[in-house]
Design brief:
Layout (H helix, E strand, L loop, with lengths): L5 E2 L7 E6 L4 H5 L1 H9 L3 E8 L13 H16 L3 E7 L9 H15 L3 E5 L8 H17 L2 E6 L2 H11 L13 E4 L3 H7 L11 H9 L2 E8 L30 E4 L2
Parallel strand pairs: 1-7, 2-3, 2-5, 3-4, 5-6
Antiparallel strand pairs: 4-9, 6-8, 7-8
């Protein structure tokens, strides 16, 4: 028997850690889900693995890594995020970093904030971006050590096909049978958070079209089991690659802070 996606209920986590690759992933991708968790009384923390310094949109003059760091702080505040930690792994080269090293950061922060679950992009990165895939791989690898479930944001296959056709965008969708939860969302906080990323938020970009096509709904998949999943089917097709075999360059700086 094929299970149909549940509608309207997030797991009853009191604390969740979102693991992302770049400043803006927390808003462009996970924003509506994060704000829904916050609205339900959940404390949300964000671990961002790179500073996004490889993205040259809008011809930003100056230190793009610093610009995007500030954008992340402002966006997290709009979403109601409690704690943000920004690491300095190389943007667009995250796949060259051993995922076990990245997973160690996830484990440390998950224990620090008392996370009862992890929130990530889907295993295909949603857009196929290798950094997104590696961030999710690290979170899945960490989940077993922390003893929590991993919930992944994805998009329906019909929406992905529309975005590919209209923008030649690299979106990858999931069929209904692969989606575990369809969530009703309010995008007010997400849109405010996206506006905090002016270096990336192009007014006519594929982002806005995606939000139009999805309306007030987001789609989620279980990547690892969770005690609060209520018997739902749990998928386990997370990437299994261990990353590069050569030792990565250590991050030059780690900035933890609380958003107030």
């Amino acid at each position: 028997m094929t299970l149909q996606p549940e509608s309207g209920a997030l797991p009853p986590w009191r604390s969740v850690l979102a693991v992302v690759a770049h400043p803006d992933d927390e808003s462009f991708g996970l924003g509506a889900v994060i704000s829904t968790f916050v609205g339900a009384g959940c404390a949300v923390a964000v671990l961002c693995l790179t500073r996004g310094e490889a993205s040259g949109l809008h011809g930003v003059v100056g230190d793009l890594a610093a610009v995007r760091s500030h954008e992340l702080t402002d966006a997290a505040r709009e979403l109601g995020v409690d704690t943000v930690r920004l690491l300095s792994y190389p943007d667009s080269l995250l796949s060259e970093v051993d995922s076990s090293e990245l997973a160690a950061h996830v484990v440390d922060m998950a224990f620090e904030v008392g996370a009862q679950g992890l929130l990530v992009f889907d295993t295909d990165g949603v857009t196929g971006h290798a950094d997104h895939v590696q961030a999710t791989t690290a979170a899945v690898n960490a989940a077993g050590k922390v003893g929590v479930g991993v919930l992944a944001w994805t998009v329906p296959v019909d929406v992905a096909r529309r975005l590919v056709a209209e923008f030649d965008a690299a979106f990858i969708g999931r069929g209904e049978a692969e989606v575990d939860l369809v969530l009703d969302v309010d995008r007010v906080r997400q849109r405010a958070a996206v506006a905090c990323h002016p270096s990336q938020a192009i007014p006519t970009s594929v982002l806005w079209r995606r939000l139009d096509l999805l309306g007030g709904r987001e789609h989620l998949r279980w990547l690892t089991p969770d005690a609060t999943a209520g018997g739902r089917a749990v998928t386990t097709d997370a990437p299994t690659g261990a990353g590069a075999t050569r030792p990565p360059t250590a991050p030059d700086q780690e900035i933890p802070w609380h958003v107030s």
